[in-house]
Structures are given as structure tokens and as C-alpha cells.
Design goal:
Keywords: Repeat, Signal, TPR repeat. InterPro entries: TPR-like_helical_dom_sf, TPR_rpt, Ycf3. It holds the Pfam family TPR_16. The chain is an all-alpha fold and 587 residues long. The protein has 30 helices and no strands. Helix 4 runs antiparallel to helix 5, helix 26 crosses helix 28 and helix 28 runs parallel beside helix 30. The longest helix has 21 residues.
Length: 587
Amino acid sequence: MNKRKSLIVALLCAASSGVMAQSVEDGVKDLYYGKYLSAKQNLEKVIAAKPTEDKAYYYLGIAQLGLEDVAGAAATFQKGLQAVPTSALLQAGMGRIDLINGNAAAAKQKFEAASAATQGRDGDVARAIADANTEIKGGDRPYALTVMEKLLNNEGRKKKEQYTPIAADYIELGDAYRFLGGENGGKAITTYEKALEVDPNNAEAVMKEGLVNYNARLKSEAVADYTKATNMDANYGPAYYELFNFYITPKKDQLSWDEAAKYLEKYMAVADPADKTKNQYLGAYIAFFKKDYDNAISKGQATLAGANELYTNKLNLLIGDAYLQKGDSLSAKKTMDEYVAKVGESKLDSNDYKLLSTIYMRLKSADTTTQNQYTEKALGYLEKYAGSITAKDPETFIQIAEQLKAARKYAAAAEWYAKANEISLANKEQLQAIDYFNVGINYYYGAVNVKPSDTALLSKADAAFQKVIEAKPELGTGYYWRGMTNFVKDPQAQEGIAKPYYDKYIEISEVDPAKNKSTLINAYTYELLYYYFKEDKANLKVYADKLTALDPNNGTVKQITENMAAREKAANKPAAKPAAKAGQNKK
């Protein structure tokens, strides 16, 4: 063999060795660290070297799903089944695709077939089935728990048939408990602790204990767990990303752009080096959180040129939001309008709708027609956002309500405040008087400003204000607004339905007439009208004097005083003598 041929052989062997050096385990490790593109590249090499390795096809599909490439993952699972038709693991992978596509019945059929083929005793298959059913909307979470319990149950089995759990099994079982929620949170924590007994350095288990605590609204404990995970394994990117997500969440006890930027930088330091577009996008995002909006816009625009569909969406959102945050609503509108025109509304998601709604809500025009168009578009996008969100989060619902209130869509705002309250109560949170007040006041304005005769809205307002009274009986607010609501129903005060509430409000508020001047004037006015129609002169004078003391030129007092004087003058006027009959006085 000559030297040239020897060199070619050596290069071929080196290339072959490079392919074989990659293993399924390498790909799974990349997935653990959230390095989906590296996992994809490594697993593709494994398949190239061994086209019948079903685990490589399965985990390659999972990596593609991590990259949000559902079509690619489905194609990979199908290709794997062509190579390994009997693979229960790839059957479970196809079941996952069915769930993503909303076909729960087809998914369940595939999962059960895969489980039966392995007698429920294959760890990869059991975890694949359980993970799909916990993580994906429409999954059967009790079924996920059953699958993992069956895998781990060695009762009655001979020693050689017993299954030896790995940390990933306990993590998957813990996930099943976590997603079931409620009292299962404690069981999830216990199960994650079992994973740590098997693998004391498993940062994923600790991070997921943080997720349980966050779901239980133990936020400081959650942050401590996420931080502990990063201390256990400084390369574990998912924990840094959870900290970033924690501080990006728009809740008053979480949102911190400085902290978000800090943890996003820490995440980037250990992120997948192969995923250059993602890293460029995150670099623009860091500039955004540091409020360097011009830099965020320029970095985002530079990254757009080579971005795929997934990052085109993310980058347009980032650029549009950066323009909005720097006060350039028209450029924000232009960015997002061009994006919508390019991809079509069918491709928009909840984040797109939310930003579009906010942009159009901020736009101002001196032209009434243009301003009305902005408002209608804002509300249209807000409605789509409300219909697209899946999270049952009171604060998200409150944000929707506040945008509707700002657009003077009061009745709709009241409905969203009420939904937020329902979720809080379902989470066993105690509501405050303000929570009920927000519902009541928006129903009230919805009736008064839009449909004054809408007794259904007034009744809803009245019921909400009663809840204010129950939550804070010593406060005059609930009584006052029950009075106001019933005043609308009884504007002449002839029925007296608002009187009991105004009586109580007056009792509470007269200790400081100056502070409560405007509200007392309304309450006194109703009382004045009530006693006027009752012809109760003594009480009429009482409330006329109270009103005059607060408002010396009160028009209602003046009008009623004049009417009373005219009525008394008519009553005291001597009766006219009857006219003489014809011829009566003739001689």
C-alpha cells in the first residue's frame, strides 16, 4: 500500500471512529442539559453508524421536539419504525405525536400497545409513555402515574426479574405526581428525593422540587431549589433558565428585569454552543432586559436574516416589544403588522396576540376614526389572547381585565375579574375586599355607562358589593356602592331600595364629612328624595340641612324646597267662591 492510500484509509478510519464515538447516552446527556441541537447532531451520527438503533431514533425525535420541530420528530419516529418495526419505544413516540396533534384516543392505543409489548417493564418505554402523558395537553396523567408505578413495582417477582430503578425513573414518577397537583405535591417531593438517593448530584431532581414549591406558591423555597440545582451542577442550564423565567414573570413579587438578565447570562454561559441562532437571540434578549432597547433591536434584526420559522416569531416579538418599551409605538406596530402579513394570523400564538393588543392600545391619534380603529383592533387581539391562553393564572386574567377597563369595556372587564377570583378561590386563596370591588365597580359602570336599564348587570354589581361588605364590614365602601347600584334602579327614591345601604354608609362616614364629602352628597340626595316623596317634612329638613352644610348651592335642595313651598301654598290657598247661577241675584 502506498503512502497516499495509507493516508486515505487512516482518514476513513478516523471518520468512522468519530461517528462511533457518539452514543445514545451522549445524546441523552445533551437532552438532560437542554442542548437539543447538539443532541440532534450526535444522535444523527449514531443512526448513521447503526440504522437499527431504535433508542437513537426516539431520542432524536425528542431533541427535535425540544427544537419545536413536530413534523421532523414525527418523520424520525416513522423512519425508525421502518427500520425497527417492532420497536415499542418508537410506538410510544408516535403516541406522543398523536397527543400533540390532539388525538388522545389514537395516542392511548399506541401507549397501551407499547406497554403490553414490554409487559410494562422497560424503563425507556415506561418513561416515554409517562412523560408524554404528563407534559402534553390532553395527556392522561393518572395513566402516567399507573405506568410508572407498574414499572417500579417488584412485588412478587423473582430476583432476576426485578427492575432496578435509575434516577430518571423516580424523576418521571415525581413528574406524574407533580402534574396531578393538589395533595400529590408532597408525594412528588418524596419521589424526587428518591432520585437523589440513587444519584446525589442529580440537579434535575432538585430543580423539579422547586417547580413543586412554585406551584404551591412557596416562591422563596422555589428560588432556593433552583439555585441549589445550579450549585450542585454549574453546567445545568435548565435551572438557570427556571430562575430567568421566575424573574421574567409579570407578578409584583417576581418581576425583576435585572435578575432576569443576570440569570439569562448565566444560562447562555452553559447553553448549547451548536445552537448559534438561539444564542444570538438570547444575546438580544439580554440587551432588552438591561433596557438597552436600541441594542436589542439591532441584534434582533441582525439575527433575523438566518433565523428559521421558530426564531422569526421570537425575534419579531422581541423587536416589536423593544420598540414599544422605548416609546416608539408606531415602529412597534409596523414590525408586528409586517410579521402578521407575512405569516398569516393562523400562525399567531398567545404571545403575539398579547403584544399586538398592547401596541394598539398604546397608539393615539387625533383623528377619531383612526383612534376607533386602533381601539377595535386592540380589543380584537385582546379577545384572541384571552381565548388562546391555557394557564389558569389569576394575575393573567387581571391583566386582561385591566386592559378591557382601560378601553371602557366595563362589563367584559368585570367578567375577567370574576374569573380571576374564581381561580384564586379554587386555589384556596383568601380574597380581599378589593377583589370583589373590582368586579362590582366594572359591572356598575357597564350598566350606567353602556346600558343604564340593564338590571342583570346591576344585580351582578350589587352581589359583588355585598361580598365587599362581607369581606370588610367596617368599611363604608360596600354599603355606599350597594346604595349607588340601587339608586340607579330607583332614581326617584320612591321605592327606597337603596335606603338601608345609604343609612349604614352615612353612619360610618359622617365621622369625617370633609373626607367623604362627594359620597355623602350622593347618599344625602337619595335620602332627601325619599323623604320628599314620603312627605316627611321633619326628615326632609334634616337631609336638606345636611346637604346644604356640604354643598350650600345644592340644586336638588333648592328645587325640592321650591316644590314644597309651592305645594304648601296651593294647600293653604282659600277655596274660590262658586260662580253665581244664572238669574240667582236678580230682583
